[in-house]
Amino acid sequence: MTTTETQAGTSPAIADREQVFIGGRWVDSTGDDWIDLVDSYSEQTVARVRAATAEDVARAVAAARESFDKGDWASRTVAERADVLDAIADGLEARLDDLTTLGVVEVGVPLGVSQQTQQMTVGLYRAVAAAARTIELVEERPRAAGGVSRIIKEPTGVVAAIIPWNGPIGTIAFKVAPALVAGCSVVLKTAPDAPISPSVFADVIGDLVERGLIPEGVVSVLCADREVSESLVTNPDVDHITFTGSSAAGRRIMALASERIARVSLELGGKSAAIILDDADLGHVLQTLPMGGCMQSGQACIALTRVLVSRKRHDEVLEALKAAYGALPIGNPWEPTNFLGPLASQRHLDRVLGYIDIAKAEGATVALGGGRPEGVDQGFFVAPTLLDGVAPDSRIAQEEVFGPVISVITYEDEDDAVAIANNSDYGLSGAVYTEDLDRGFEIAKRIRTGTISVNTATMDFTLPFGGYKQSGLGREGGVEGIEEFLETKTVHMP
Prior knowledge:
Shape: globular
Structural class: alpha/beta
Largest sheet: 7 strands, mixed
CATH superfamily of the largest domain: Aldehyde Dehydrogenase, Chain A, domain 1
Oligomer: single chain
C-alpha cells in the first residue's frame, strides 16, 4: 500500500485499497478494475480502490443472508447491539484525523468543517445506541373478543445500504447504525467519487469482527459502479434497500425493487426554500442563511437554495445577501479558516457552471459570483453565486444544482410565499425567518417539507429527518430511523 503526500502531511488513510471488504474481512476481488480518487483541490489522482464486481456483490449478499438466517447477530438483545455501536464510535473517534483528511480530499470540505462533521458522525452512533435502548420490541395488547396478542418488532433482514459521495461517513452512520442496532445484516455500497473514507469504516468493523463483537458476514463494504450496484438492488436475498442520492437514481432503485416488492427507504434531492417575511431582522437572517445555503459548497441535499423575499424588501435584502455570501471565506481547504472549498470533481464543476448558464438564458441576472473565485487558480471551485430575478417555474428554481448557487425569488404576500415554497417536486428542508415565532411556526406547518426551521438553518440528525414528495420515503434519525429497519409481527395468544 502506498501513501500520498497531502497538504496536511503524510496520511496513511490516503492509500490504495487492493482488496474488497466482504463479511467483515478484506479479501481479494474477482476483478481487476480500479476506481481513482481525485483530490478536489490538487486535481490529482492520489489513491485507488479496487472496484467490486457483480460476483463480489453476490458473495457479500450471500454472507449477509447466511449471517442473518443463522441469527447470531439478530438474536442479540438491543442493548448488546447498542454496545457495539458505541464500540464503532470509539473506533471511528480513534481515526478522526484520517477521516478529517479524507473529508477534505474526497469532497473538498475545508479542514475545520471536516473536523466538525466527522466528530458529529461519531456522536450519531452514540445517539442511535441511546435511542435504541429506549425501544420495546415486544408489546402485549388485549383483543376486543378476549385474549392477548403480542406485537413484535423484528429486523427487516438483509439490508443494501447505498450512499452518495457528498458525505460518506455521515451517511453510513444514518443507515448502518440503525440497521445494525435493529439486528439487520448490511451490505454497504459506496460511491466511486468518495471511495476511501468508507474503507476506514470497514477497518473499524474488521477490528470488531476480530474481537468477536460482530459476527462474520454481518457487514460488507464495497465500492462499485452503477451497473454492479444494480445487481445488489435486484438480488433476491436483499430484503431492504436504503438509498441516499438523486431523485432520478431513487426512481430507478424503486422501479427495480418494485419487481419483487422489496422494502425501500429513500433520502433524495431537495430544492429547499427560505422565506424571509417582512418583519424579519436581517441580522438574524444573515447569522444562518448564507451557511445554510452554501454548506459543503452547496453539495448538500438540505441546502437552502431558494431565497424568497417580498417585493417591498427585495432591494434591501439582496444587498445584504450579496455582502454576506460574498464574505464567506473560500479557498484552500487545508486552511482551517475557510468555510468553502472546491466541488468534488471536474464533472460536477461543469454541471454547476452549466446551471448558471441555463439560469442566465432563462432571464436571471448574476448578482454575485457566477464562476471561479478571484485569485483561486487551482481546484474545482465555484464562487458563492446569487441569481436575481429568478422565475418560480424556471429550471434553476426547480432543479437541484448541488452547488453554491442561490436563487432569489420575489413574492407578493405571505400566501404567495407559501405557494412558491410549495411549488417544487421536492420537500426536504426549509426555513422561515420572522420576529414572530408563533407566526413562523404557523407558516412552517403550511410548507410541504419533512424538516423546516424557524429563524435558523440548524439540522439535528439525531431527530427524524426525511422528505415529502420526490425527496424520499421514510425517515432517518431518532427512534423513527431505527423503526425504519423493523418489521411488525402480530402473534395471537390464547
